[in-house]
Each structure stands twice: as C-alpha cells, then as structure tokens.
Design brief:
Blueprint lengths: L2 H13 L2 H8 L3 H15 L4 E2 L4 E2 L1 H27 L5 E7 L1 H6 L1 H11 L3 E7 L2 H10 L4 E5 L6 H8 L8 E5 L15
Parallel strand pairs: 3-4, 3-5
Antiparallel strand pairs: 1-2, 5-6
Helix pairs in contact: 1-2, 1-3, 1-4, 2-3, 4-6
Length: 187
C-alpha cells in the first residue's frame, strides 16, 4: 500500500467517477483502476460498489482514515520543507508499508515537536528493502512489521503517540545510535 493508492482512492471517492478522478490526478483511467484494485487487494476488501458507485462500509472507513493520513502526511512534508537550512542534523527513518502508512505520520509529528532542530528523512518500502537500507547505513532507524523491540531511550518518544505498539519492530543501526544506551544488533 502506498500514498498514491490512498490518494487515488480519496480523489475517486470525492469525484464519484473514474474518468473525473483520472482527469483530476492527471493519470489514465486505467491507472486509477489499477491503484484502486491494488489497494483493495492489499486490504482484502471491496471499497466501492461499482454497480451504484457508492462506497462500501469498509470504503467509508478507509476513506475517512486515508483522508486523515494524507492530510497529516502533507502537513508533515510542508513542515519539513519550511525548515530549509536551519536543520542541524538529519535523522533517517525507514518503514515498511503498514507501519509507514499507519504509524509513521504520528511518530514523525511527535518527533518533530520533541526535536525541532533535527530534520527527518523518510523512506517507505517493503520490509526487506528497509532492513537492507538500515544495514547499509542509509537509515538510522527502521520500523517493520514484526515483534516489538524498543530501546528505553525511544520508549518515551513512542509512548507519546498514544498508539498501540504491538506487531512492530524498531530497528536502530548500532553505529548510528549516539545515545548512552548500549544495544546489541537489531537486525
């Protein structure tokens, strides 16, 4: 699941037409259909009753959550772009698609408030790519779908989100971690 799929679904629901959504997004009608099918397949539900072009119950819920997430994501990108040259350090976070979609925006919002002078660089991809990026040193921290493992230093930051932290694995490359807590390998 990715931002394009969610954005396409929200525009499609707003426009109530595949052709109007395609025009609004400046993509082909078949691309709109592909994005919707990919999202439905990933979620395992039908989001639109194509006979009457109405949202299903799941579609209504996904529309609401996707709209909220996309708004938070745009706000986060805007805030990051406004910081410009005032950043003192960049912290690179990667996440697999599920935590990247549902958990990362809230985490980043809390992080930015707690550490306003640190720039965030975000990467959302599949778990294998994220783990590989962390191992190569391209990321400082990664969130992937797995059992949870959190360093005490990060617990206070993560607990501020108020989110359930089950089924997530927080990976921090030991070489990039400059805190006082010693840690064994997380990958």
């Amino acid at each position: 699941m990715n931002e394009k799929w969610l954005s396409t679904f929200v525009v499609l629901a707003d426009q109530e037409s595949f052709s109007k959504a395609a025009d609004t997004l400046h993509i082909s009608q078949s691309a709109v259909t592909k994005h919707l099918k990919a999202l439905e397949q990933k979620l395992g539900v039908s989001l639109i009753d194509r006979d009457h072009f109405t949202l299903t119950e799941e579609g209504k819920w996904v529309y609401e959550k996707a709209s909220e997430w996309l708004t938070e994501w745009e706000d986060l990108k805007e805030r990051c772009s406004q910081r410009g040259e005032s950043w003192k350090k960049t912290f690179r976070i990667g996440a697999s698609t599920t935590p990247g979609t549902y958990f990362l925006p809230k985490l980043c919002s809390v992080f930015i408030k707690a550490y306003p002078d640190i720039r965030l660089s975000l990467q959302v991809d599949d778990s294998e790519t994220i783990s590989s990026s962390l191992k190569k040193g391209d990321l400082d921290m990664a969130l992937t779908g797995a059992s949870i493992l959190i360093l005490n230093l990060w617990w206070s930051l993560l607990s501020k989100t108020g989110l359930q932290l089950l089924d997530l694995l927080l990976l921090i490359k030991k070489d990039n971690f400059n805190g006082g807590t010693a840690a064994s390998s997380f990958y």
